[in-house]
Amino acid sequence: MTLFRKPIPIEEALIKLMQFPKQIEEEYIELTASAGRVLSRDVYASHPVPWFIRSPYDGYAVRASSTKEAGEHNPIWLELLGIVAAGDVWHGTLQEGQAVKIMTGGAVPDGANAVIMRELTKEEERDGKTFVQLKRKLKEGENISSVGEDIEEGTRLLTKGTYINAGVIALLATFGYEKVPVTRKPKVAIIATGSELLGTDEPLMPGKIRNSNGFMLYTQALRSGAEPISFGVVKDTFEQTLETVRAALKAADIVVTTGGVSVGDFDYIPAVYKELGAELLFNKIAMRPGSVTSAAVLGDQLLFGLSGNPSACYVGFELFTRPVIRTMLGMENVYLQKVEATLKQDVLKANPFTRFVRSKLSFEGGRLYVQPSGKDKSNIVSSLPGADCFMVLPGGTRGWQAGSMVEVVLIEGQDGMREWK
Ligand SMILES: Nc1nc2c(c(=O)[nH]1)N[C@H]1C(S)=C(S)[C@@H](COP(=O)(O)OP(=O)(O)OC[C@H]3O[C@@H](n4cnc5c(N)ncnc54)[C@H](O)[C@@H]3O)O[C@H]1N2
Ligand code: MOO
């Protein structure tokens, strides 16, 4: 058996992989629980917004024609008939020479077609009646929110695949969505393989390290919109690995393992794929870190064999697993967004393969800069917390000097505030 694996370009690996993500069914969930989920249906306006004529100001609703003689030196007086608060309706039809006091959001009475702001008027009592003084002409439709001004009935407002943010929630609430149709979260099983791995509660022992990738992948799956299911740690034995992957396939749509995917004596993932009868899509990609990233397909399920090295594992998930999850969610933009930034410091490293350097962005003088967020080896964990992007250094180069423009793919804002979709 040859251990040599021929690396394939990233694009080729993605083309192979992206034939397989399955479409996930929808479910209805509470509006308040829908933030961060993905719409499974288009949303149409079932009524216009506003659906009745509304006043945008506290003031007086009038007929514009009643004000045509009004001017700075020619005040006119209109008889005040009543008051409409927001939520109320004034029954009757306003005539020439009449006014109704109205609050912001109030329904403009029939017959009225303009509103004057309260500050531009004054009220006066005369002979038991109230009059309102205007010193300016109003145009028909002035200060009126017309029916459908915001949204016309029947408009397609949101398309299936839309990420639900606060604005989407506002729109759904406007149309009375108590329950929202969303795609079910794909279930992603996470298995950390390695006899050297300890739990976070265990003391360090010779030759052992703590499992950090399991927790990291759990978080990456969560922020990609999936439902992670942790299968903990398995020892490097073929039987245990096979048994756990089998159990994970029963519970999840996608199975992600970390470690055991290379050519070591105890790297059992390739053999497990074989035993399961899964079709191997790739097991070597022309990239660093994460060259050992593997994927296989079994029926409608995908298996990812990510590196055990923390940075390689992280990059492998973002570049390959995340777009699969987002495709299953029905999203349109499934890949990480690309921008260009100015390199802040020399990054001089020979790149036989395309290199994804964990990096951080900064703005200075309105310009976007990028620099590595720490050490750049695949077994490094310390550069991950500060990374909000990967700097992409193309294969076949010897790196770049400070001041060069480089391509950057965005991952997550450091303040957790950005929604990279
Ligand atoms: N002869 C060769 N050796 C290696 C090759 C190669 O092509 N030929 N590739 C190297 C590259 S590149 C990588 S990346 C690693 C990938 O190895 P595996 O994915 O099989 O991972 P392991 O050997 O199981 O572990 C690698 C490293 O990571 C640590 N690890 C594993 N799991 C975790 C975890 N859950 N949390 C934290 N750290 C973990 C593990 O202890 C090892 O130190 O192979 C190279 N070798
Ligand atoms: O897959 Mo290894 O991480 O290329 O560095």
Would you kindly provide a brief summary of this structure?
The protein is α/β, with parallel strands linked by helices and 421 residues long. Helix content is 16%, strand content 29%. It folds into 4 domains: 10-24 and 185-328, Molybdenum Cofactor Biosythetic Enzyme, Chain A (3-Layer(aba) Sandwich); 28-48 and 152-183, Molybdopterin biosynthesis moea protein, domain 2; 59-134, Molybdopterin biosynthesis moea protein, domain 3 (Molybdopterin biosynthesis moeA protein, domain 3); 338-410, MoeA, C-terminal, domain IV (Beta-clip), CATH 2.40.340.
Draw up the topology in text:
Layout (H helix, E strand, L loop, with lengths): L9 H8 L8 E5 L12 E2 L14 E4 L13 E9 L13 E5 L11 E4 L3 E6 L2 E6 L21 E3 L7 H9 L4 E5 L3 E7 L3 E2 L10 E2 L2 H11 L3 E8 L3 H14 L2 E5 L10 H8 L2 E4 L4 E2 L5 E5 L2 E6 L3 H19 L9 E6 L10 E11 L2 E6 L16 E5 L11 E6 L11
Parallel strand pairs: 4-5, 11-14, 11-15, 12-13, 15-19, 17-21, 20-22
Antiparallel strand pairs: 1-10, 2-9, 3-5, 3-6, 4-8, 7-8, 16-18, 18-19, 20-24, 21-22, 21-23, 23-24
Bound molecules: ligand LQZAQKY5 and molybdate ion.
